[in-house]
């Protein structure tokens, strides 16, 4: 069973991580001895992913310099250089739309700035997604302190709903930034267009095309210098 390609989102400026990100892109900051993004690359390679696209913008020349072509992990890494090609980051959905020619009929998407060392990019999950009708499947996590209200509701049968349109008692969770997607999720977004993912997800929810799973392993959005310091202190 083959696994799908993966898009790692690494184009953001990382404003909340300044001054660290003035000289280093957030996904290249060191966590427990290696660049944050390298944890993802090792996990993807372990789970049978072979094709990886990394979208870049801020200090983007540092990514090929640090990661090369991916051969040291048994991966083929290609770069979607939004800074070079469009003058800056295209946001999540825009970045996905821009990278589609390198991704194919379905693909993993994950943010380069989360630390989730135990996540499994299971080929069986990818295969089941390809065989189903959904435009996306997102992994949700229990709400961290900085998102106490959660992002989306998740029904017992694994459907993602808007929090304000769900039945009372349906729990809300936070988007882990990991998901499986099809090009239909970003339909209508032109290459080079800036576009956020949230409206695309809500369109999929309204069409009954977004499923979800709960992930309860360690997960940290490395969004502030304090969270980075805490991770590195936890060695």
What does this structure look like?
25% of the residues lie in helices and 24% in strands. The strands form 3 sheets. Strands 1, 4, 5, 6, 8, 9, 10, 11 and 12 form a 9-stranded mixed β-sheet that branches. It has a two-stranded antiparallel sheet with strand order 2-3. It contains 7 helices and 13 strands. It has one domain (6-233): Alpha-Beta Complex (Spore Coat Polysaccharide Biosynthesis Protein SpsA, Chain A), CATH 3.90.550.10.
Which keywords apply here?
9-stranded mixed beta sheet; 24% strand; 235 residues; Spore Coat Polysaccharide Biosynthesis Protein SpsA, Chain A; globular; alpha/beta
CATH architecture: Alpha-Beta Complex
Oligomer: single chain
Q: How many structural domains can be distinguished in the coordinates?
A: 1
Total helices: the number is: 7
Structural class: alpha/beta
CATH superfamily grouping:
Spore Coat Polysaccharide Biosynthesis Protein SpsA, Chain A
Parts with pLDDT < 50 across at least 5 consecutive residues? none
Number of extended strands: 13
């Amino acid at each position: 069973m083959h696994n799908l390609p993966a898009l790692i989102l690494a184009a953001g400026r990382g404003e909340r991580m300044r001054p660290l990100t003035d000289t280093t892109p957030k996904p290249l900051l060191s966590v427990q001895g290696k660049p944050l993004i390298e944890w993802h690359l090792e996990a993807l390679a372990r789970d049978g992913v072979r094709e990886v696209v990394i979208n870049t913008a801020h200090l983007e020349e540092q990514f090929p310099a640090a990661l090369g072509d991916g051969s040291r992990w048994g991966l083929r890494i290609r770069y979607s250089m939004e800074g070079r090609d469009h003058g800056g980051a295209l946001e999540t959905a825009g970045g996905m739309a821009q990278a589609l020619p390198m991704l194919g009929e379905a693909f993993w998407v994950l943010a380069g700035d989360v630390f989730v060392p135990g996540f499994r990019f299971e080929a069986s999950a990818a295969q089941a997604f390809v065989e189903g009708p959904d435009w996306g499947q997102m992994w949700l996590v229990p709400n961290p302190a900085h998102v106490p209200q959660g992002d989306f509701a998740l029904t017992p049968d694994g459907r993602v709903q808007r929090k304000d349109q769900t039945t009372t008692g349906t729990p809300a969770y936070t988007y882990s930034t990991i998901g499986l997607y099809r090009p239909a999720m970003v339909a209508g977004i032109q290459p080079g267009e800036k576009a956020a993912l949230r409206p695309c997800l809500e369109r999929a929810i309204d069409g009954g095309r977004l499923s979800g799973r709960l992930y309860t392993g360690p997960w940290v959005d490395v969004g502030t210098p304090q969270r980075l310091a805490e991770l590195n202190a936890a060695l």
